[in-house]
Amino acid sequence: MKRFKFGALLLAAALLTAAVPSVAWASDKIDKVRIEINLDKKLEAGDPITTSGLDVSVNDTDADYDIIDYNFINGGDTWRRGDTPMLVIDLEALGNSYFSSTSKSYFSITGNSNASPSFEDADRYDKDNTSMELTVNLRRITSGENTPGSDEIWWDDNEACWEEDLSGKGYEVRLYRDGSLVTTVRVNDEEDTSYDFTSKMTRRGDYSFRVRTRYSSNSYSSWSDFSEENYVSSSDAEDNEDSDSSSGGPGGSSGSSGGPGVSGGSNPGTSLPSSGWMLNSYGWWYRFSDGTNPANSWQYINYNWYFFANTGYMHTGWLNWNNSWYYLKPGNGDMVHSGWYPVNNVWYYFNTNGTMYTGWLQLGNTWYYLLPNGVMATGWNNINEVWYYMDANGVMYANAWTPDGHYVNASGARVQ
Description:
single chain, 39% strand, flat
C-alpha cells in the first residue's frame, strides 16, 4: 500500500513538472552581424522616399539572426539634394542566440556603389538582447536641381512668389531696386514659396527679385532669371516705411546696422566684417561670405552645431525641432550631444545627433531609464506596470535588495 502511494507521488510530481512551462534564456552569443545593402540605381533629388529598388539581406549563410523590417527615417516625401538617407533595420536573434554588442566593429555592412552603406548607430531594445535596431547611412544625395525660370517667378503686390522645388531645403531670395541689391533673405521651408518685401521697399524705384534653391548651408542651385519690375511710387514707399520695424542685424542689407562696429557691436570703431560671427544688442548671428545669414536652420560651424531662429539670431536652451528635443548650451549655443548633460541640476542623455533620449538605455552592463520628459529616473519607478529601483546615479538595481527592503530580480523587476 505504501509502495503504491510512493509511486503515485512520483507520477504526480512528474506530471506537475511537465505542466510547468520552461523558461528559455538566450545563451548563444552572436559574434558578428553581416548585412548587405544594394540599390538598383543612385538616389537623386526629387525621387520618392521609398524602399522600392532597395535590397537588404543577411550576408551570412550560417546566421542565427534575421531581418524583420527596414525603413528610411528621413522626413518628407521626396529626397532632397544634400540629404543623407538613413535606413533603420530591425533585427531579431533566432533560437537561443543573442546580440552581444552594439559597437561599430561588431557589424560588417557591405553594398554596391549606388548604396555605399556605412554604420551610424545600433541599439538593443529588450533586456534579453534578442532584438536590435541598426541604423545605416547610405550614399549622400548630390545630384538633381531645379532652377526657376522667368516664367516661374512673379510679383503678387509686394510679395515675391516662385514655383516650389522639393529637391531643396529652402530658398534664398534677393531683392533689387533699379538694378542694385537691397537685401538677401532666406526662406527655410521648401513648401513656403513667397516672401513679403513690403518693409524693404521704402524708396521710390523699380524693384525686381531672383531666387535660388538652397540644398545645404553652402550648397545652392543657380540663380533664377530676374523677375518683372515692380514700380513703387514715393507715396507707396512712404507707406511701406511705416511697416518697417527692422533695426539691423540678420536679414539686413550689406550696409545695415547691427553687428561688430556699430550699435551693440563687440569692436566699436571697426567696420562690419565680411563673414563670421556677429554680435549686436539682440544677440549673436552669423554672416556667410556672400553677405547672407542663416535663419530657422541648423548650421555646422567650426565643428559644432548651432541653431538660428527665424530672426536669424543664435538659439540657446531647449529647442523642439521636427518633434525632437535638443539642448543648446546657454553660454555659447553649442548643441549638446553624445552623452549625459545636466540641465538645472537634472540629468539628461543626448544621442549623437543631439536628440534627447527617452526610455530604457543600456551603457555597458548598466541600465538606466529616461522618463518621457527626458529626465533620468531615480528611486522607484513604475514602468509598464512593473516597479524598478534606480539609485541616485540612475543605475537600475538588479539581483539585489533595495534600501527600503524590497528584492528585485535579474531584470530589475521588484518581486517582493
